[in-house]
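Justification of computing resources. Each target in the renewal requires a structure prediction run like the one illustrated here; the chain below, 174 residues long, is used simply to show the kind of job we budget for.
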Amino acid sequence: RSQGGLAISPALPIENAQLAIDTGVLVYVRALDLWGRSGKFDAIAAYSHLSGNALAFGQPIERDLGFGHAAMGSVFSAWTLMFIFSAMPCGALMDRIGPRRAIFIAVLFIAASGVLRVAAQGHLSLLFGVAMFGLGGPLVAIGAPKLISLWFEGKDRAVAMGIFALTLGVTMLV
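Resulting structure tokens:
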């Protein structure tokens, strides 16, 4: 378990930000030798739970939006669920229309998600706006590596994929 305060820019109206992360990993590895052939079996189960709270303008964020923890949980989960169910169809769409057009469509979905989130007036409209991001996300997650594979070769491809992977990690922290 890791917990503590969170550094926030002084320009933002956020106070008392606290963050807690619980993480666990269970790993089982077995080497096999059957009929003169060897192999390895790996099973990995990872668990991570992130929770946090903060005050915005002196009030808890849920209070400002007018709904509680369960409703906020459904909003935070909406893009992930949409991502899971749209990843394969988005991959098929990318194969059909090409990665450049697919990433352009992704940018449109992500921009629409931002507009809908800003304009949200309640739980359902915020849920819909966040879920919209889950339609653009798979196109970027699939499209960027596809474009890298088309545009770069050899060491340049490895560097480009490294930069792409690094930006994914950095954006999750921000």
